[in-house]
Structure formats: structure tokens, C-alpha cells
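Service request form, structural biology core

Requester: graduate student, group of Dr. S.
Request type: structure prediction, single chain
Budget code: on file
Notes: please return the result as C-alpha cells.

Sequence provided:
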Amino acid sequence: MRTFDEIRADVNHAMSINDADALMVLATELDALQSPQAEALARRSRGLALYCRSDFPEALSHLQSALEVYSELGDRRGVASVTGNIGSVHSKTGDYPEALSHLHRALTAFEELGNRRGVASVTGNIGIVHDSTGNYPEALEVLQRFRVVSGVVVHAADVDHAVLLRADRRA
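Core staff response, request fulfilled:
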């Protein structure tokens, strides 16, 4: 049986390339570990796999369940990450007020943790929501903040740069 850290590394890789099948397999492997940390990551992995498959209601259910476990564990980084994931699901379903609410909570949490990559990712996703709602001046403002904080490496899967560049041209 592999360790939690070994599986977590594979989950992070699968998330970075949006590999829904691998995320589901890894979630099952995490279930076998029977620890609260593994349970939280398994629920998040299933939620992200379902998100990749555009099954947004089920993705939301698994992510909210993961959020509960991360909260119980006092895992602030896990809470911040899953809160951002929930915001992304709401964005995809067109529930932009709820998306912004979750994304701003995630942003605050990442700022408090000093997690620059998380700040950059969530900032970019907030810009995407503003672009989607046609709020181009706000999208441009967020784009400018994104450019400042994204001096860290941000995976292409985290932020759709083309959307933000469109906002730059429209504003």
C-alpha cells in the first residue's frame, strides 16, 4: 500500500492535467488508507474529477463534503483550496454571485496563509468571473492585480489567461 504523500503527489499531478479518470482511481486508493486526511483528499479528488466531466451538481456535493472534513481537521490550506474549487463550480454553472463569494473567501484564506500561488490562481479566476458577467472594467483591474501576484508559477489549468487578455482589450 502506498503512503498518503505518494498518493497526494499523484493527485496533484492528475489535477494539473485535468485527468478525471486518474483522480477517480486515486480517490479509491485514498479510501483504503482510512484516515481523515485521506478522506478529505478523496472527496476533493472525486469532486474535481466530476468537475472535469462537467457533472457540476455531483462535483459540488463532493467538494462541499471535502470542505467539511478539511474544516474539521483545521486544515486551512485544504479549506482555501476547496473553497476556490467550489467557486469554480459555481462559475461554470453561471451562479456568479456564489462563485465570487467563494473565490473571495478563498483569496482571503490564501493571503492569510501567505500562499502566493493560491492568491494568483484565485485572483485569475475572479477575473474570469468578471469577464463572464461582462464586467470588463473590474476584470481589467483584477487582471492587473493578477499580473502583479503571478510572479509565481501558475499552472495553465488554474487560470484561463486568454479570457483575462480579452478583458484587457475590452476595457
